[in-house]
Model the fold of this input.
Amino acid sequence: MGPVRAALLQKELGIYFFRDLLDHFPFRHIDKTIIQKIGSITSETDFIQISGVISHCEIIGEKASRRLLAHISDGSGYLELVWFRGIQWVQKNLMIGKKYLIYGKVTYFNKHPQISHPDYEIIDSSVSDKFIFEPIYPSTEKLKTRNLNGRQIAKLTSAILKQINENDLPENIPIQVLKPLNLVGRYKAYNDIHFPKTMDEFKEASRRLKFEEFFLAQIRFKMMRNRRHHKSQGVLFEKVGDLFNTFYSTCLPFELTNAQKKVVKEIRQDTNSGRQMNRLLQGDVGSGKTIVALLTLLLAVDNGFQGCIMAPTEILAQQHFNSIQNLLKNLPLNIHLLTGSTKTAERKKILHELKEGLCHIIVGTHAIIEDQVEFKNLGIAIVDEQHRFGVAQRAKLWKKSPISPHILVMTATPIPRTLAMSVYGDLDVSIMDELPPGRQEIKTIQRNEMRRMEVMEFIKSEIKKGRQAYIVYPLIEESEKLSYEDLMQGYEQVKTYFPEHLYYISMVHGKMPALQKEVNMQRFKKGECQILVGTTVIEVGVDVPNASVIVIESAEKFGLSQLHQLRGRVGRGNHKSYCILLTGSKLSHEARQRLKILCDTNNGFKIAEADLALRGPGNIEGTRQSGALDFKLADIILDQSILEAAKRYADIVLDVDPSLEKMENAGLKNYILALKGKTAWSKIS
Ligand code: ADP
Ligand code: MG
Done:
């Protein structure tokens, strides 16, 4: 290949080395033995392969509709082939009167079938008959116009495979894993995934290579975790001291659930082990993560260390600060709040106290991890609602202390198990799958917004019973500059249903000054108003047990996990609670599915799985940048069973031979050593 095409291959597909080309997998194979007749095409026809003679070829149309049109016929009829780009080049190359093999997707234009930008190949040589199943590769328009369409890529790949042997693709999965799983060898797998002789061969090759991807990832995760467990020194919380004990026996407003007790015990063990804790706490909305965080902070202070808890938004930080201060008011502790809007003088004082060790617990937003913030001896850092917390930001925390502090990451919504396994594979995971006693299922229903009146009447009946209600509008990320019209209009509308002399209504939104927000929120919390109209700023953390209804306007505009979070604002007390999703009448299929899932279940773990299946892993917040989902072949949803097997076998291999010293693991070890530095695994904390 000449330098021009090579450069194009690099630029367009990131293919630099032979290795990359071998890893450029086909997305499908065409069975070359199946050539259909043009006359058999119907409106049902999808992808098709035909062969015929090109009879006509000309450029037609003006400007945007300028295109190259060719006719191909096989005796049973003729088909139009159309090109919109690379017109000149194709025209120069297409030979009238020659027989071609054509592959592509049939569409109808002016009632006549056509294929636009087909794969085409002249039938002249032996090449096309070599494989029964011809691989079709992802390509790009640019490449296609430079004679590097899917078929040409196949030729290159085939040429490479002919030049290499088993030594060039050494086995990297130990034989004791290959055997029981009946996996084909690596060299064979590469040959078969590109050029299988049967479809079964293809399937086996693909199973093997998917397993390899998962297996290597799991091995590396587990080695990282082992290393941390064995080598990394952790801050030692030796004792359970007075603060913890006093709080536990006299200030705790309720009995902990068994799930909470279990997690506190796990944290206690981690922090008393001499190793650094890196734990992910997964608990559904309302499962009581805050109190677990608080107990963990007390453990740190009891042992002479400082602790911090970080939240993604100012309002949530403020909430945490209020509730933590309130719960700890009888203990001799110095607690501060540090956010972006902390005044300079106050900030200066806090920074000083942190550095001198006078401040025990700091609650805040990212403001905490700024470089100027220094601790005397940070022992634990807790990150709440981590979906919104950049991975890099978390890494900054580690450096705040000579010995990396313990890290506890709490998620707002459960992460699907497969995702957790692949993204947070090196974290220890705690799960709280139990809600505090006395909670009732929240009843969730969807209503067309035409029936808003009915819904408002329902709110009235709940208010009559002494309850309170939220009405939420899909607006304004805190930082975003958007108009408030919707919210304001909504607010006015709500006031027409709930006249001011009979009802009290409060409002919160992201652009209000923090103090105002807080005042309005507190009014609602204290029961001084019955309705809180707001944006999604109330999404996380807001805790008003007397609220029994939440109405979500334009619910179709929210994501599943966000809706679940919002719903979690009600059902926090003993009252039967309701979540009403108001929607427009034109809903996409996906939106309909999303809302149905929400109406069907209250279980955050199930919702997370459904969300993942619906939107795919790349769209789940916080995962894209992690790089851990960059599997070429494997798919964490579709190949879940392979992922599980990979994890199981990675455990088996490393339990027996933690540093891969044994002969039978040499191939694996060499492979992993060679990979080092190529992937930024440090990004995944
Ligand atoms: P989340 O896990 O969503 O952060 P919170 O920590 O905000 O949940 O707790 C939700 C509500 O449940 C709060 O009102 C909290 O006081 C209450 N709560 C937490 N643990 C218990 C418990 N063991 N028994 C009763 N109520 C609890
Ligand atoms: Mg919370």
The longest strand covers residues 47-60.
